[in-house]
Please model this.
Amino acid sequence: MAITRFKRLRQSLEELFPERHLYVRSGGEMRGYVFSTGKQLMCATVVAGAALWMGVCTAAMMVSALSVSSTDQMVIKQKAYYERLNADRQARLNSAVAQLSASSGSLDELAASVEKRHAALALLVSDFRGVPGAAQALQTAKPRLPGASPVERIQATRMDQERLIDAAETFANTRAERLRAAMRMAGLDAGGFTRGGGGGSLGGPLIEAKDPRALAAILDVDEEFAGRIQHAANDMSDMRQLSAASQKLPFYRPTTNPALSSSYGVRFDPFTHRPAFHSGLDFPGAFYTPIMATAPGVISFTGVRSGYGNVVEIDHGNGFKTRYAHLQAASVKVGQRVAIGQRVGAMGSTGRSTGPHLHYEVWVNGRAQNPNRFLKAGEYVQQAS
Model:
C-alpha cells in the first residue's frame, strides 16, 4: 500500500516537473542540458525556502517597528504628564505677570500678591495641626532670599506654594479615603458621617466657601487659588469628621488576647451539638482577664441575661451598642460614661458557658452585626494613624 502511494506521488511530481532539455548554441557549437525531475524539485524547494525566510524576516521587522512596549508607553505618558504640569505652572505665572502688567502694576506688587497667597496657605496648614503625620507632610518654610530680585522672589514662592497646596490636598484626601475604606470594611456608609463638603475650618472661624469668589475676597487671593484652598479645606473637613466618627465606633479590641474560640455565624452548639446561630465572637482567656470598652459610651445595662450570665452593655450613640457577656464581675455602673480601653469587667464563665471566655457582640439599630468586621476596620484605622 505504501509503495503504491509512493509511486503515485512520484508520478504526480514527474507530471508537475517533467524532464526538460535546454539547448544553447555558442560559437557554432550546440550544447544540450538536461533538467531532470529531481533537479527541478530541488531548485523549487530552495526558491520556496528563500521566499519563506524573506517573508518571515520582513514581517518580524515590521512588527518590531510598529509595536511599542508597555514600558515605552508608560515612559511616554509620564513624560507627557510632567510636560503638561510644567507648562501649566508656567502658564499660571505668565498669566499673573501679564495681568499685572496690563493694570500698570509693578513686579514688586506681584511679589506682594504672591506672598499673600503664601499667608493664605499658612492659614490652611494651621488647621492640620494635631493630625498625625501632618507636620512631616506639610512643612511650611517661607522662602527667604535676601537681596533677590522680585522675579526670583515670585518664582521661589510660587514653587513652594504649588508644593504645599498639592501636599495638603494629597494628605487630606489619602487619609480620608483610608478612613472611608475602614467604614466600608465595617459595612457602614461613610457618607453618613460627613457633611458632604459643606466647608472647611480655616484657622478657627468656619468659612462656608461654596463660592470661591467669596473666599478669595476673605483671604485676599486670586479666585483660582482660593478654589484650590477650598478643595483642600473640604478634604480636611471630611478627614476630621471621619476620624472623629471612627473614634466613637467599636473599632477596638475588648481584650488583649487576639485568639478566637468561636466566630460569628452558624456553628455547632457546644451543648446541643446542633447547628445554631452565634451572634458574636468568643475570646478565650483566664479568669479575671480585664475586659475593655471598644468605644466611648454610656453603660446602659449591667446584670444577668438568660444564657449570657453576667453582662455589661454600652450605648455608643447613633444606634451602636456593644455587649460583653459571661463576665465574672462588672466594674462599672449603669449611667457611667466610659472611654476607649476603659475596663468594664473581668472575664468569667457565667451563664451558658463551657469555660472562661468573653462573648462579645456589636449591635447596630437593634440588629446584631459581625464584630470581626469592626475589629478589622479598627486595625486598618490604626495603621492610618
Summary: The first strand starts at residue 20 and ends at 26.
